[in-house]
């Protein structure tokens, strides 16, 4: 199987061909791979506790002990988290933390590593 063409808008690798078009199941874009597609900026701006801009794939450090509902211990300040993903909403960082699993964090409690 050949490598799929990544989506020009959301950069997803989960695209698939349908007739002459490529389809992105993540953002719903349909495009012809032989034509130029304009990329659209989502406008999502996320800043850490110090005001530095965060991007997908960045590494961050927790700046405050964060209690976790249903967990016997909290996430300690100084915990480093790699490969974050930015999302819309109140908790605008999705990540995986060793010992806790998948988490949604607020950007005000982290700093860029």
Structure, described:
This protein is mostly beta strands. The chain is built from no helices and eleven strands. The protein has strands at 16-18, 21-23, 30-31, 46-47, 53-54, 60-62, 80-81, 85-86, 93-97, 101-105, 110-112. The strands form four sheets. Strands 1-2-3 form a three-stranded antiparallel beta sheet, with no helix packed on it. The protein has a three-stranded antiparallel beta sheet with strand order 7-6-11, with no helix packed on it. Strand 8 and strand 9 form a beta hairpin. The termini are far apart. The mean pLDDT is 87.
- Give a short account of the largest sheet: 3 strands, antiparallel
In spatial order, strands of the major sheet run 1-2-3
Strand content: 25-35%
Gyration radius from CA atoms, angstroms: 18 Å
CATH superfamily of the largest domain, by name, is: SH3 Domains
Q: What spatial form do the alpha-carbon principal axes imply?
A: elongated
Percent of residues in helices comes to: under 10%
Number of strands: 11
In CATH, the architecture of the largest domain is Roll
Q: Treating each run of at least 4 consecutive H or I residues as one helix, how many helices?
A: 0
Order of H and E elements: EEEEEEEEEEE
- Mean pLDDT over the residues: 87
């Amino acid at each position: 199987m050949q490598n799929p063409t990544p989506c020009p808008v959301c950069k997803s690798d989960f695209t698939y061909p349908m007739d002459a078009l490529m389809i992105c199941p993540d953002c719903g874009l349909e495009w012809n791979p032989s034509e130029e597609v304009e990329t659209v900026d989502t406008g999502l701006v996320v800043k850490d506790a110090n005001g530095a801009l965060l991007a997908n794939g960045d590494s961050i450090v927790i700046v405050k002990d964060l209690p976790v509902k249903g967990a016997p211990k909290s996430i300690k300040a100084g915990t480093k988290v790699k490969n974050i993903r930015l999302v819309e909403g109140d908790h605008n960082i999705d990540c995986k933390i060793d010992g806790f699993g998948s988490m949604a964090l607020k950007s005000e409690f982290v700093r860029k590593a």
